[in-house]
């Protein structure tokens, strides 16, 4: 008869749990062969404690669950509402944008009696993308009509991830401040436009406007800095020649 080879894992060599003859005495420490196995008694005790914790704190846990459910439902509801508002806003501003493109600025801003103007769209759908875009259109229209304070308000309400449009909005706010004889404020906005995702295509023009606005404000040192940045950061820009001339003029004025 063949013999089974000794492997070291026979029943003789496995650690055994010693059970006391006294049923009231605590069991000896459980030492399983596999280190990841739970002690059944400890596991049972933990389950009992968990059930007891849930029972004692049932109202608190139900309250927390209700808060989580309400937060998720509220967030989803807001998402649906915002999408709905955006669709309505886009439909509402369609005619206003058509007037804007045709340079019928008054109808674009105020509406035509049947269709909302940009002012109403920006106000009623302000939390949507359509309302945000309406603020930009309204700001440009107000600027063209000489309503500079209104233009600033609309354009400051506008925000965009697109670096070209946002920088353009900053520059237009600068234009409105310059028209209001506020050259320092204008220069600050031109600087924001130049440095918002700075690039070789648009930043030089904004820096040139900043420099001239600082000259109007008699901040010649600031003007020199703006012109110098064009020459050092964007030497190949079309504005470089003007920047060189304007810098010489600002230096002459600064030394007086």
Automatic annotation (TrEMBL):
SUPFAM superfamilies: TPR-like. Keywords: Membrane, TPR repeat, Transmembrane, Transmembrane helix. TPR repeats lie at residues 167-200. It comes from the Bacteria. The chain crosses the membrane at residues 60-81. It holds the Pfam family TPR_16. This is Tetratricopeptide repeat protein. It comes from Hymenobacter lapidiphilus.
């Amino acid at each position: 008869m063949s013999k089974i080879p000794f492997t070291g894992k026979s029943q003789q060599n496995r650690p055994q749990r010693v059970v006391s003859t006294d049923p009231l005495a605590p069991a000896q420490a459980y030492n399983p062969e596999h280190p990841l196995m739970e002690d059944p008694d400890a596991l049972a005790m933990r389950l009992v404690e968990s059930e007891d914790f849930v029972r004692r704190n049932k109202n608190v846990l139900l309250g927390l669950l209700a808060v989580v459910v309400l937060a998720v439902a509220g967030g989803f509801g807001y998402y649906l509402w915002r999408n709905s508002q955006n669709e309505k806003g886009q439909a509402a501003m369609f005619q206003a944008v058509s007037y804007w493109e045709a340079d019928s600025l008054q109808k674009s801003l105020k509406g035509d009696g049947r269709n909302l103007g940009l002012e109403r769209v920006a106000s009623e759908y302000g939390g949507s993308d359509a309302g945000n875009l309406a603020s930009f259109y309204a700001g440009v229209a107000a600027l063209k009509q000489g309503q500079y304070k209104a233009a600033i308000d609309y354009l400051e309400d506008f925000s965009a991830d697109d670096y070209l449009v946002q920088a353009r909005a900053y520059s237009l706010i600068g234009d409105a401040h310059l028209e209001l004889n506020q050259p320092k404020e204008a220069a600050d906005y031109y600087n924001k436009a130049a440095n918002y995702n700075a690039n070789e295509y648009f930043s030089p023009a904004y820096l040139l406007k900043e420099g001239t606005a600082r000259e109007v404000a008699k901040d010649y040192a600031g003007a020199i800095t703006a012109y110098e940045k064009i020459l050092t950061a964007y030497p190949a820009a079309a504005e470089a020649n003007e920047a060189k001339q304007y810098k010489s003029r600002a230096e002459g004025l600064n030394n007086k």
